[in-house]
Amino acid sequence: MFRYSYKAIDSEGKILRGILDAAEKKEVVGKLHELGYTPITILEAQAGARGWKILLPKKSLRLFRKVSTKDVLLFTQDLSSLLEAGLQLDRALTILMDVAGGDPFKEIIKDVLKTVRGGSYLSDALGKHPKIFSPFYANMVRAGEVAGALGPVLGRLGNFLESSQDLKDYTKSVMVYPAFLIAVGGVSIIILLTYVIPQFSMILADMGQSIPVTTRLLLSFSNFIKSYWWAIAGVLVVLCFFLWSYLKTPSGRSRVDHYQLKLPLVGELVKNIEVARFARTLGTLSKSGVPILQALSLVKEVIRNRVMARALERIWERVKEGERLSKPLGETRIFPSLAVQMIVVGEETGKLDEMLLRVAETYEKSTTRMIRRIFSLLEPVTILVMGLVVGFIVISMLMGIFSMSEIPF
To answer: What distance in Å separates the CA atoms of residue 89 and residue 97, rounded to the nearest whole number?
Structure first.
């Protein structure tokens, strides 16, 4: 038996949350239907939950919280479930607006609902909020409206957003330990240089003994940091500002992206991420009925590496002239040959959308493995570098102490 948390609607349209014990998700769905509830989402509950209970929605005062990608993901999944359950669009939006509580997202959903009730399409209503719902999102919804399959298309869109969010969450989770090591090591070195070593410098100065070269260098460096820390901080801030400004320019961003692809490991990782994003986006759009040229235009906006985005512009021109996608894609020499060959197979079998989604799955798994490999290497390298720096400081201090006592080191 497993423990599942669920979100469902009762006969009065209220959102209910709770926990049920069942062997699988289908059994949870059956139990909810027996209770007269329409399930929205069913997830495996975290360990430690006890029994099952119905929880009313919690209204929290999070007025200043920004709308996150997870908010959009949950909205998409819930709206898909409600529409699949047979609810009308305005009724589904009303329920989701009530669930949003005091979030700023509630005001956005409220505006979307008002626009829809005014006679506009959902895609047009979402398009009024491009910072929350991207052009890619709005076009996916428009394709679902045209095909008369808004619920299933929203489901595919939810899967797309979920896979993207999972990759982001995984990357953040593996970065925690190396970041912690770097932070602790950096603070330790700063304390040694600005507090501990100056105490030894005063002792050595009073003793008047001959100080070893490494100790003198360390003391000089420590005095420099302690005396001119404000200048060092100012220079770093100015450099960061100019670097940030340079990256905001098209030429600067393009140059950095170009060199990024040339770096060992990092370049391959960037390619894998962009190929997975390209294939997942194009495959999802194609499966939802968006024409290939329009889909390529949207994909171009999703790709973050400017070098690969410019390559997609040339690919769009070639496809517009009547060529197959795989030919100009392979001639760019940027996209991996495996991905190109898989797309060739998809075109030959007439299942390009399915093959694109397989390409996305392949390169998402490859990306996860590469991230794990890079950070598994980063951890010992970080420990080694911090150990060498701290070791040099400690040995230099000991040499100074031994020189005071005239004890050979």
So the answer is: 12
